[in-house]
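Q: Protein A?
A:
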Amino acid sequence: MPAPIEEYAVIGDCRTTALLDAGGSIDWYCPPRFDAASVFGAVLGDADQGRWLLRPEDAGATAVRRYEEDTFTLVTRWTTDAGEVEVTDLMPIGGGSNDARSDVIRRVRGIRGTVELRQELRVRFGYAATLPWMRQHTTADGPALLAIAGPDALVLRGPRLAAEDHAHVGTFTVATGETVDLRLTWYPSHLEPPEPVDVDDAIERTNRWWREWAARSTSFGAYDDAVRRSLLVLRLLTHEDTGGIVAAATTSLPEEFGGSRNWDYRYVWLRDASLTLQALMVHGLHEEAQAWRRWLERAVAGDPADVQIMYGVAGERRLPEWEADTLPGYDGAGPVRVGNAASEQFQADVFGEVLIALDAVRHAEAHDDGLSWPLQRALLEEAERNLDRPDSGIWEIRGAERHFTHSRVMLWAAFDRAVCAVENDGRRGPVAHWRALRERLADRIERTGYDAGLGGYVQSEGSREPDAALLQLAQVGYVAFDDPRMLGTVAHLERTLMRDGLLRRYRTEAEVDGVEGDENAFLACSFWLVEQYARSGRLDDAEALMRRLLGFANDLGLLAEQVDPRTGRQAGNTPQAFSHLALVRAADAIAARRRA
């Protein structure tokens, strides 16, 4: 059985990631790219789906872990009756673009006494579909174990292992002052094994790269440690070469334990990436803005009618959804899905999110390459063609399409930013026409998306259902945070979507989404509520809810998509960009209110 989701740490190289549980097992690793097939997939099954375990042989050993400051270099201090060792886990970064290898380093350093450690390596290529051919080598650098199957190969350099029941196992001892390095490298199987990485150089270079990046960020004096870690998570999920920002590092971690709400989040949603970009830019991190804008221009190039709500890491358009039956699912929660059928949905809100993000890039004085404004005008033309079209909404419902209020407001925001670009920034365009469309959308929103009896906005036309996405209405400037209509909406959400003090996205029992089962509290929604409280003058409520939400982060400051507020268990894919970017916004709102 895999560890609780909140127990996992993440390491990565801004091209892919690995998840490690607190017991020293790497249970998820998909080299060389976020959306590649897993080599270690135990988080979606058990050890038979692949893992790499490294821990003291003493079953009673205890561990304390931390990240090196402002990095994703994980340091775990193990204590046994016989002594102490420190294990450093990382994926090297900072050496330039390289699609031909992906490295994981595990360095063991003796602190006190002599400790025996155990290794267990189970390589399962292709989402645990393929057992590789394995062979031992002795090289000038020491023992090497090679695994090859199809297009994939791994080489593990370190203490010698022995074959045992479709695994390779072994033990070694580390005494005070001694260091033992384990180096795992993925590479394409048609190539020769790459040269071993220089561990000392890799650790120094990787830590320096992360710290130099973090040093560019600005802080606002509220929850700075949590904000800093969240910004680092957002950078970790930004592909170093393409600029694409993935929604999470994993697929199919369940929103409901034992249920079927399991989705692949290892792709680039225009919405999530746009919101991530805004969070980074507010904190002075503008280089990512230019990289993402270039990614966007490449991804949506062509007919604007073909724009999708999500793409692959390099802008791929075909993301067919299929079920990986070789992975039984997290604690049996199946199916495990690869790809995402939501890529074929129409979600009108993405026009607004993209135009808002590009407006922020323009105001940050990022270099304009001459393509951004023509792209925005093309997107506006496509948005206009779809003003009256029902959609699947921000929550990607798999039921009947609807006229979601949130989607209409985001369309309003798209034309609002276009008007501002002409009036304030000197861009050229049919501003009178855009103003008229903006007013037409506002009129419809007030007629069909606002319920006077409830005193607030509703999920969709013809319904009285609540929707936590309505908290974004004030964020995008459609209404003020303290507008009576917004306050009435908040009161309606508090009455209907609060579960044990946290917000759900919507009422799953209303069967709007076409998916069986329930889900836990959606962390981003509760962070949005913190922002709403702070900006509408409810600072005490904002700070109380913020403290509670931060309490759900694990010992390393990481958050998944959802949480069970009764048990504190995290649920859904992890680490989740949406949760961390909403945390940043919430902290910024509290900082602003404190200064007011």
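Q: Protein B?
A:
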Amino acid sequence: MKKSSVVYFVSALLCFGMLSCRSIKKPESVYVPVDYTEEDAVKDQIDYVLKMSEKDTIRAVWRSRILAEKASDNPEAKATFEKCCEKAVEDMNKKIEEKDFFSALRIARSLSAVSYSSKSMVMTESQVEEEAYRNVPGKGKSSGSKENVARLISGTVTVYVDKGIKIQRGVGYADSVLGSGFFISKDGYIVTNHHVISDMVNKKYEGYSRLYIKLADDPDTRIPAKVIGYDSTLDIALIKTEVEAPYVFALGSSSDLSVGDKVYAIGSPLGLEKTLTSGIISSTDRQLFTAGTVFQIDAAVNSGNSGGPLVDEQGRVQAIVFAGVANYQGLNFAIPVEYLKNELPFLYAGGERKHPWIGAYGKTKRLPGAGAKREGVNVLYCLPGGSADLVDIKENDTVVAINGMKVNSLDQLHVAMMKLESNIIVRVTVEKEDGTRADRLVYLATRPSSPGYEVFRHDDLGNAMYPMLGMRLINSSSMNRRQYMVTKVIKGSIADETGFSENDPVEVHDVAFMEGNSGAVVTLYAKKRKNGFLDVSVRVPAPMDSPYYF
């Protein structure tokens, strides 16, 4: 099984061994496409879009653009697009007046994507961008020579979350979370891991919590801090304290690193401040997140190191330490600094960083043969009614660029998406099966925590099994709606690794979701060709999120 399949397949299996499930019947709601040749349907869409523009300006611009293209013979449809764009300009000007430049920038970029401009705009897109990014931290520069270790250590902190007193068997114990962090600006902005400060931002946590930091040179003093922004997907957080940083780290470029390069981890393992360990980059492409790959390192990392910097010999931050595997020495992981550099504007804007998606599922397209060239991301599935589906991105299209950024692989697509926020319109370039290319204007919606569950809710069962398990099913009986035939299996998918093949007869008995909808168990009765068509009943775990959703 491939590395990414192993991670999500095994994690799902473990989850279902511990948590109860609930069964859900199909269908809940299946999307019905709009027939733009019907006059009444067009009128309904016009009313729908105009109402949407009062609350969701950018999405209304996008939907009105689709309406204008699909109903090109209807002058009212074109006028609706103009009205929505004018409303967007009004909202952008209002955001600028309120000094909310990040919100204004989303609108400016979306209007640019649909090629709309107006003399009533008080600022250009580039001017808004300059204002939005003016004070974003993380602009420290490296001296270019080997940095003094003592100075590096002075720029790290111990992150301390005080959770009050925990009572166990009638005895009270101090309850706290320890982690590490590092300064990226002179005025006190610090980077750490989200999981270190998660109790500070978790809406479901109802207990006491206070955030502090301890300077490396003054470990006895707790200095109050606050959370500015956080990203649970990439496990990054930006916090702020009202002290002048003794040392500001320069952010390097992870592209400079390769397997075998020397690195150093600085942090507070088990609360032991000012700890420096060294090692090498063991791998640069471990798939532990649903977006992007991480480094594997062999530098010693323990509880409390999380959030600390991983630096090169020039003292530049190349990654953020975030995890180790208990009882296994030398098997530790770090988040590439490129992700942090992409994330900082969104973290600085404040609150939770919500990642975008277009409502699709796919894999890297490669030419046949070992070491073959990667040609983009092959779209295997589009969520009915999702952004990709509404602009006619089809199965077997290949995504080759986003907003002009070339995309050769799924990893590159994730990196390109990290530079973008949700609730914005972008240009996605796709290559059709006949080799022709087309630009599609796509609205980036907020990525759900469980994309597979959204697929299950909004598509019929046979199609939903394609991204969920990796096999497409077609109903094979008019008498029994649960009887299907396998028509296609994705190589390397859960279905492939479980031994399913094309033309296998399958009966779906149940789909049970775990609490939070992060995974499901699909109960199947099948006659698998690879088993000599012997009758077999199997329960297949299906994670509801993976790197293949985008």
